[in-house]
Design a protein that fits this description.
Blueprint: H1 6-31, H2 41-45, H3 48-56, H4 61-72, E1 75-77, E2 83-85, H5 91-94, H6 106-109, H7 124-134, H8 140-162, E3 171-172, H9 173-190, H10 204-215, H11 217-222, H12 224-230, H13 235-241, H14 243-268, H15 277-282, H16 293-324, H17 326-341, H18 348-352, H19 355-368, E4 375-378, E5 384-386, E6 389-391, E7 396-399, H20 401-405, H21 425-432, H22 460-474, E8 484-487, E9 499-501, E10 503-505, E11 514-518
Parallel strand pairs: 2-7
Antiparallel strand pairs: 1-2, 3-11, 4-7, 5-6, 8-11, 9-10
The chain binds protoporphyrin IX containing FE.
C-alpha cells in the first residue's frame, strides 16, 4: 500500500466501524425481540453501560440494577440481550428442574474461563451428561462417607487456632476458613489436602488468588477474547502483561498434574485407589473426549474455586454475627453442650438435627447470599410469562440472590442477624426463655443461596456438612475441643457486600474478619 493511501484506508475503516455500530444500535433499540421491555436506552444499546459499572467501578452493576428496578418496575432490560427480574415469587419459574430445558447464556458462561466445565456448559443436554457424572460424588451418602476427612480438617483448624491463644496475636478467620475449605476439597478431589491449614499465617495468598480470579470474572465476560489471546502467547510474556493469568495458568497446571496422577492410579492402582471426585469421573462412563485432561482440568478448576470461597465466606459471616450477638451465641453453646452431653458421636446427621444450629446456618446463608452476581438462565424452547410480559424463548433472564435475601417483606429487618426467623413460634419462645428450641421450621422457599433447578450448586451437601461440622465444632464445649473467640478490630464492614465479584466482596482494602483466641 502506498503511504499516501494509508490515511484514506484508516478513514474508510473508521467510517465502516461507525456505520456498523449505528446499525447495531438501531437494531438493538428497535428490532430486538425484547425492544419493548422497560429499562435505560443506553443499557439496551450497548454493553458499555454494564462495563462501566462492573469493570470500571469494580462490580457495582448489581446495585445499579436495583436502582433500575426502582425506576422501571420488576422487569428490566439490563443490557442488549438480558432481562432482569426482581420478584421473589418468580424465582422458581426461572430456575427450574429437568421438566424444562434450561441453557446458560454463552456470554456469561465464559466468565470463569471454563466453558467445558459443567458450570460453563451452555447446552442443556451436554450439561445433563456432565452433571450426571459428577452427581454421585456429591450425594448425601458420598458426603457422609467423606465426613471423617472433613472433621479431620476441622480438628486441625481448631488445633491451629488454639496455638494462637495467649500469644496476643490475632487470627484472620477469612483466610483460615479459605484454607479449611480448600483442604477439604483438595482431599476429596485429588485424594490429598493442599496442606494450607499447616501454613503459619493461613496462606493469605491463596484467598487473594481466589478473590482476584473472582474479581476478574467481569473482564472475562466482557473481553473473553482477550483471555483467549493470553492463552496463545508464551508464559513469560503473560507474566509481564497480566500476572494474574500467570497464577491461573500455574493453578491449571497443578490441577492437570493432579488429574494425571489420579488417572494413573485409576489405571494401575487396583484396590488401593482412594475414592476421589476424579476417580468417580473416570468410572462414570463418560465418553473418552469428555475425560480428556484439558476438559477435566476445567472441571477441577471450577470445583476447587466453587468449593473454596463460597463455603469460607459463609463460615466467616456466621462466625462474625455469632461473635457480635452474644445472646444467640450463648443459646447455641447451650444447644451444643446438650448435644455433647448426649454422647461422643459428633456427626453431620446429629448436628443437622439441632434446630438452633440449623437456624444459625440458614441465617448465615441468607446473609452471605451464596453468590452476589445475577445468574442467567435461558428457556430455549418455550416463552416465559411474567405478569403481562411474554418473554421470548431464547432470552437470557436473570435474578439476584441478594435481592431475594434482602427482601424486607419476606425477611423483615433483613439487615439483622436473626436466626429466630427460621424457628416456629414455640421454638422462638423456647429460645427467648433460654431453653433449646424443639425442632426447626421446614419451609425455606425464599432461601436460595445455592440457586435452584438443574443448574443449582453441585456441592450443596458438602457445603452443609462443612458448615454444620465447622460451626458445631468451633462452638462446642471447650473441654470437647471448642474455642473461645473474640472479634479483634473487626466491624460489620468486613462482612458487608460492597462489590459484586461474582462472589460477594467487602469494600476494597478490607482486612478480613480477625479474632483473638482465648485460653
Ligand atoms: C456455602 C457454600 C456454597 C454456595 C453458597 C454455593 C453456591 C452456588 C451457586 C449459587 C451456584 C450456581 C452458579 C451458576 O448458576 O452459575 C453454584 C454452582 C456450583 N457449585 Fe456451589 N456453592 C457452595 C459450595 C460449593 C461446594 C463446597 C462445591 C464443591 C465442589 C461447589 C461446587 C459447585 C459447582 C461445581 C457448581 C456448578 C454446577 C453446575 O453448573 O452444574 N459449591 N454454587
Amino acid at each position: 500500500m502506498e503511504l499516501s493511501s494509508f490515511p484514506l484506508a484508516c478513514c474508510s475503516l473508521l467510517l465502516l466501524l461507525i456505520c456498523s455500530s449505528c446499525v447495531l444500535v438501531v437494531r438493538r433499540l428497535f428490532y430486538s425481540p425484547i425492544a419493548h421491555f422497560p429499562g435505560p436506552r443506553l443499557a439496551a444499546a450497548t454493553f458499555l453501560y454494564e462495563f462501566y459499572y462492573d469493570v470500571v467501578r469494580d462490580g457495582r452493576y448489581t446495585w445499579e440494577i436495583r436502582r433500575m428496578h426502582q425506576q422501571y418496575g420488576p422487569i428490566v432490560r439490563i443490557n442488549p440481550y438480558e432481562l432482569h427480574i426482581s420478584d421473589p415469587y418468580f424465582y422458581d419459574k426461572i430456575y427450574v428442574g429437568p421438566t424444562r430445558r434450561t441453557q446458560k447464556w454463552h456470554w456469561s458462561a465464559k466468565m470463569f474461563g471454563t466453558t467445558r466445565a459443567s458450570v460453563g456448559t451452555v447446552d442443556h443436554d451436554v450439561h445433563r451428561m456432565r452433571r450426571a457424572a459428577l452427581n454421585p460424588s456429591f450425594s448425601k451418602q458420598s458426603v457422609s462417607r467423606l465426613e471423617p476427612v472433613i472433621q479431620r480438617c476441622i480438628d486441625r483448624l481448631c488445633e491451629r487456632l488454639r496455638e494462637f491463644s495467649g500469644t496476643g496475636k490475632y487470627v484472620n478467620l477469612s483466610n483460615a476458613f479459605t484454607c479449611l475449605s480448600a483442604d477439604v476439597i483438595g482431599s476429596y478431589a485429588f485424594g490429598r489436602p493442599y496442606g494450607f491449614l499447616e501454613s503459619e499465617d493461613f496462606h493469605p495468598a491463596w484467598r487473594k488468588l481466589m478473590m482476584d480470579l473472582s474479581r476478574s470474572t467481569h473482564l472475562m465476560k466482557q473481553l473473553g477474547w482477550a483471555y483467549g489471546l493470553l492463552t496463545c502467547i508464551p508464559e513469560f510474556l503473560v507474566n509481564l502483561v497480566h500476572p494474574l493469568t500467570k497464577e491461573l495458568f500455574r493453578l491449571r497446571r497443578d490441577i492437570a498434574s493432579q488429574i494425571a496422577k489420579v488417572r494413573l492410579m485409576d489405571k494401575y492402582g487396583g484396590q488401593q485407589v482412594p475414592q476421589t471426585i476424579f476417580h468417580g469421573l473416570f468410572a462414570s462412563g463418560l465418553p473418552a473426549e469428555e475425560l480428556s485432561t484439558e476438559r477435566l482440568t476445567e472441571e477441577g478448576l471450577t470445583i476447587v474455586g466453587a468449593g473454596t470461597v463460597t463455603t469460607a465466606h459463609t463460615l466467616t459471616v456466621i462466625v462474625f454475627h455469632l461473635l457480635s450477638n452474644s445472646h444467640v451465641l450463648e443459646a447455641l453453646r447451650r444447644e451444643l453442650d446438650d448435644a455433647a452431653a448426649e454422647g461422643p458421636e459428633w456427626t453431620w446427621t446429629k448436628l443437622a438435627r439441632l434446630p438452633l444450629l440449623s437456624a444459625v446456618i440458614s441465617e448465615g446463608l441468607r446473609m452471605s447470599y451464596g453468590v452476589s452476581h445475577r445468574l442467567q438462565r435461558i428457556s430455549p424452547d418455550s416463552p416465559l410469562q411474567y405478569k403481562q410480559w411474554t418473554i421470548p424463548a431464547g432470552t437470557p433472564v436473570s435474578m439476584t440472590q441478594m435481592d431475594m435475601h434482602e427482601n424486607e417483606t419476606i425477611f423483615p429487618e433483613a439487615d439483622a442477624f436473626m436466626p429466630a426467623r427460621w424457628l416456629n413460634e414455640a421454638q422462638r419462645q423456647a429460645l427467648e426463655a433460654g431453653t433449646v428450641p424443639p425442632e426447626a421450621r421446614e419451609a425455606r422457599k425464599f432461601l436460595v443461596p445455592f440457586s435452584r433447578g438443574t443448574r443449582a450448586c453441585l456441592g450443596i451437601n458438602l457445603a452443609y456438612a462443612e458448615l454444620h461440622l465447622a460451626i458445631g465444632s468451633l462452638f462446642r464445649p471447650v473441654e470437647c475441643g471448642g474455642l473461645d473467640l473474640e472479634l479483634f478490630e473487626t466491624d460489620r464492614d468486613e462482612v458487608t457486600c460492597e462489590l459484586d465479584w461474582f462472589n460477594p466482596a467487602p469494600k476494597l482494602g478490607s482486612k478480613g474478619v480477625r479474632v483473638i483466641v482465648h485460653r
